[in-house]
Specification:
Helices cover 48% and strands 15% of the residues. The protein is an alpha/beta fold.
């Protein structure tokens, strides 16, 4: 997927730094614009109004942000297969997690998505208010996470979760947590996998936040296999992890790029 025709060109390298600033600054700006509204609306609106509004606004904001990256930062996103899930719900949407952009890309195409998030992000000043208005789910209390996930699925949401629990360190995929299988079993919901592929591991776990990207950046998300819920969590988790490894391959351009 990699096209590095401008590599080594000083002007192109300067452009990559500018694109990095635009990309990081653009995301912060999108979040800051919605932050005061989310802070005000969260205590004022009843859940039946605030929750769908919060989710729709996050999805819209992320679509605008990805458009910004496409126009000014030499990023190309192929996300059309996610659209096939929009009218299929409720679903547990489970994806590999190579980059900080993963949730942004998925949620941009699913306006009724609810994410299982790290507690630190839920408490973050920049992201927390919007996430709480949208009734995203904290991952720090296991039983509460399971119950809230089941409730969201009963309401017809797309539950977005990363089975690895954090961004991938050992490509193509790290060990998967049994939490996905547990949520599926308790909610009787199918698990739809998404396969995320990047031309480089930009904003991956081993990529420093202020390291310039290798442009152009190409990102593709394709639909994977759908797994029915199973009672045996160990078997389910093993099958899920094996499937990700077989589809994504044992060798990844990300590993080489991280070492560069």
């Amino acid at each position: 997927m990699t096209d590095r025709s401008g590599a080594g060109n000083p002007l192109w390298m300067a452009y990559e730094y500018v694109a990095m600033i635009i990309g990081l600054g653009g995301l912060a700006l999108v979040c800051l614009l919605w932050l005061p509204c989310a802070l005000i609306l969260n205590p004022l609106l009843p859940r039946r109004l605030g929750q769908p509004l919060g989710r729709a606004m996050i999805s819209f904001g992320f679509r605008v942000y990805l458009r910004l990256l496409s126009l000014f930062c030499a990023c190309r996103f192929d996300l059309k297969e996610i659209d096939l899930l929009r009218d299929k719900g409720p679903l547990i949407v489970a994806a590999n997690h190579p980059s900080l952009l993963d949730a942004v890309m998925i949620v941009s195409r699913l306006p009724n998505a609810v994410c299982v998030m790290k507690a630190s992000l839920m408490d973050n000043l920049l992201f927390g208010a919007a996430a709480r208005l949208a009734r995203y789910i904290r991952n720090d209390v296991g039983l509460e996470m399971i119950l809230n996930s089941r409730e969201a699925l009963e309401q017809g949401a797309h539950l977005v979760i990363f089975p690895e629990g954090s961004r991938t360190l050992n490509f193509p995929v790290d060990a998967c947590s049994p939490s996905v299988g547990l949520i599926a079993s308790r909610s009787k919901s199918p698990v739809q996998t998404l396969l995320i592929e990047f031309s480089t591991p930009y904003l991956g776990k081993a990529w420093p936040l202020f390291r310039r990207p290798s442009l152009p950046l190409r990102c593709r998300i394709r639909l994977g296999r759908s797994f029915p819920p199973q009672a045996n969590l160990q078997v389910f988790t093993s099958e899920l992890e094996t499937y990700f490894r077989s589809e994504l391959g044992r060798e990844s351009p990300s590993t080489a790029a991280c070492a560069a």
